[in-house]
Amino acid sequence: MDRIANFFASPAMKVVLLAFALIFPLIAGSEYQIYVMALAFIWAIAVYGLNIITGFCGQLNLAHGGFFAIGAYVVAILTVDHGWAFWPAFVASGVFSAVFGFLVGIVSLRLKEHYFAIFTLCVGFIIYLLLDKWEALTHGSLGIINIAPPEGFGLIDFTRTIPFYYLVLFFLVLAIVLVSRISSSLVGRTFLAIRISDDLAQSLGINLMRNKVLAFVLSTVYAGLAGGLYAGVVRFIGPAEAEVVHTFDIITYLLVGGIGTLMGPLVGTMAITWLTQAVQSFEEYRMIVFGPMLVLLVIFMPKGVVGTFLTWRGRRLASKAPAKEGQTRVGDSATSSKEASDNA
């Protein structure tokens, strides 16, 4: 059991997951499954963004789905209405999300706890209203169609499902690596200090506003870029992309996987996505099946799948440490007694 636990917590597990992701198109039963997995990867990128501001910094942003929609609309508007190629528009989606996130952050992050959450919920609703009512810019409730797909390189055509799958996988791996670097850096430790206590962090000389805004902007960049990729694969978007239900979906993925963990966003997104696909045959009854399962998971695993596993493993290692220490002391005492008798 300990060997299995150590394997799941080791870098080798990440290598196995990457290898499985690379060969998935070869073992998938249909092209539809590859398409679903690519969409799940896109949502996982957005979940990693929420994990930065909520999991690391402790600020619940209920406008995260709105920033996802902003990234998608930036790509759609620039490619359809202004004739941009996908890649410049994709970069612009990250830049615009960062700028808008900075403007929202410097206002909203002056609030704390549930006041901040309520404010961002209102921001998300405002984003939805702008996308729905500003017809001159966003095409209103009709949405935008014929969005330009990512341009390929040489013989690689990203309009096909498998090449696009690998493209999204590349961005997902890049997102995970960047989050890993952030979490192990001084900036990441600063975020964790803020999550524990604002007063404690401030007493240590941490600039609360600057670091909160930084975390907020990073999270919105993740959401915006994920939205840009989503627009490139779906090629049609509407104001519904900014509805708060998408934010709650992202929060659900994060809760199931484990808030503040490195692999939690990926595990939660994959688990919920494929569980939803598994019960899809129940049609209108699928939420009756899916809902209680989610409630039970949150009750018995409040730290998420990954968080609960890491907690269990930490307690097991901690319980073994005193036993090993006691065995070491007994061994040292026996050695000392033997040396004393030999000297006598």
Automatic annotation (TrEMBL):
Keywords on record: Cell membrane, Membrane, Transmembrane, Transmembrane helix
Segments crossing the lipid bilayer: 7-28, 34-53, 60-80, 86-107, 114-131, 164-192, 213-238, 250-275, 287-312
Domain of life: Bacteria
Keyword Transmembrane: yes
Subcellular location: Cell inner membrane
Region named Disordered: 320-344
Membrane-protein topology: Multi-pass membrane protein
Pfam families (UniProt xref): BPD_transp_2
UniProt-recorded name of the protein: ABC transporter permease
Naturally occurring in which organism (per UniProt): Alloalcanivorax venustensis ISO4
